[in-house]
């Protein structure tokens, strides 16, 4: 049986249609390029993600950082120890609760993140070179919608 996608009035097979495969391949290639770019600055892809998340949110707990950086709490804890030893992040006890430790970027961490960001702009430009500005905007919106759809999906 073929199902109709009401948005595009396109026929979809019952099985996977290849979009998940293409997204997976894109993820694989993009991760490789990100790793290559940030490695030249002595940073891993996971560390770059954590630095970006901390920069965006200002400060957060280790558990929040783990969730938003897509790593386990144990991995985040080890990663934070390394980043702290390199002077990229600092820990501070929350004033409202002594057991909660907040993490935040140091000036060195922000400077390193800026270097990595500049390198990754080139990766994004290459990835999006075939799309117009309008198409990039639509793609961004669609990707956010897909993430929302999967976050609401219960298996």
Automatic annotation (TrEMBL):
<dbReference type="InterPro" id="IPR000835">
    <property type="entry name" value="HTH_MarR-typ"/>
</dbReference>
<protein>
    <submittedName>
        <fullName>MarR family transcriptional regulator</fullName>
    </submittedName>
</protein>
<feature type="domain" description="HTH marR-type">
    <location>
        <begin position="16"/>
        <end position="148"/>
    </location>
</feature>
<dbReference type="InterPro" id="IPR039422">
    <property type="entry name" value="MarR/SlyA-like"/>
</dbReference>
<dbReference type="InterPro" id="IPR036388">
    <property type="entry name" value="WH-like_DNA-bd_sf"/>
</dbReference>
<dbReference type="InterPro" id="IPR036390">
    <property type="entry name" value="WH_DNA-bd_sf"/>
</dbReference>
<dbReference type="Pfam" id="PF12802">
    <property type="entry name" value="MarR_2"/>
</dbReference>
């Amino acid at each position: 049986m073929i199902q109709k996608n009401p948005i595009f009035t396109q026929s979809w097979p019952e099985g996977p249609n290849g979009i998940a495969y293409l997204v997976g391949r894109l993820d694989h290639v993009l991760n490789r390029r990100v790793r290559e770019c940030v490695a030249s600055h002595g940073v891993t892809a996971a560390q770059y993600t954590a630095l970006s998340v901390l920069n965006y949110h200002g400060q957060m707990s280790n558990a929040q950082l783990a969730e938003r950086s897509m790593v386990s709490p144990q991995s985040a804890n080890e990663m934070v120890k390394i980043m702290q030893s390199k002077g990229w992040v600092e820990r501070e006890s929350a004033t409202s609760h002594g057991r909660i430790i907040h993490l935040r970027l140091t000036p060195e961490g922000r400077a390193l993140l800026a270097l990595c960001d500049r390198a990754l702009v080139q990766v994004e430009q290459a990835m999006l070179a075939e799309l117009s500005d309008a198409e990039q905007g639509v793609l961004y919106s669609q990707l956010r919608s897909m993430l929302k759809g999967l976050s609401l999906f219960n298996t």
